[in-house]
Specification:
Blueprint lengths: L7 H21 L5 H15 L2 H30 L3 H13 L2 H13 L7
Helix pairs in contact: 3-4, 3-5
C-alpha cells in the first residue's frame, strides 16, 4: 500500500476479484427453463441462418476479383512486351465470358444485400 492509498496494482487486483465474483455468481444463477433455452437457440439460429450464403457470396466475389486481377496483370505483361494483338484477344475473351457483368453482379449480390428489407 502506498502513502496516498492503494497502488494501481492493488486496485487492479481488486477489480479482477470483483469481476470474477460477479461472473461466477451469474454462472451459478444461470438455471434456464426449457422454454428459455429454446428461445435462445431460436435466436442463435436466426442470427446464423444466412451465414452460409454470405460465405458463398464472399468466395464468389473474391474469385471474380482474382480473375479480373489476373487478366489485368496478363494484359500489362503483354503491353510491356509490345503484344497488343494478344491484349485485343484477351479483351475479346473477357467480353465473350461477360466478366464485366459477372463482376458487377458479384459486387451487387455481396454488398447490396445489406440494404434489403427484413
Amino acid at each position: 500500500m502506498s502513502f496516498f492509498g492503494k497502488s494501481s496494482i492493488d486496485k487492479a487486483i481488486d477489480v479482477v476479484g470483483d469481476v470474477a465474483k460477479s461472473g461466477m455468481g451469474m454462472w451459478n444463477n444461470a438455471d434456464f427453463t426449457s422454454q428459455e433455452k429454446a428461445d435462445h437457440l431460436l435466436k442463435l439460429l436466426e442470427a446464423t441462418k444466412s451465414q452460409g450464403t454470405s460465405i458463398s457470396r464472399r468466395d464468389l466475389l473474391w474469385f471474380i476479383i482474382a480473375l479480373h486481377g489476373f487478366s489485368f496483370v496478363v494484359a500489362v505483361i503483354y503491353v510491356a512486351f509490345d503484344s497488343m494483338d494478344k491484349v485485343t484477344n484477351l479483351v475479346s475473351v473477357m467480353d465473350a465470358w461477360k466478366l464485366g457483368w459477372a463482376f458487377v453482379a458479384a459486387v451487387s449480390f455481396y454488398y447490396l444485400t445489406q440494404f434489403k428489407g427484413k
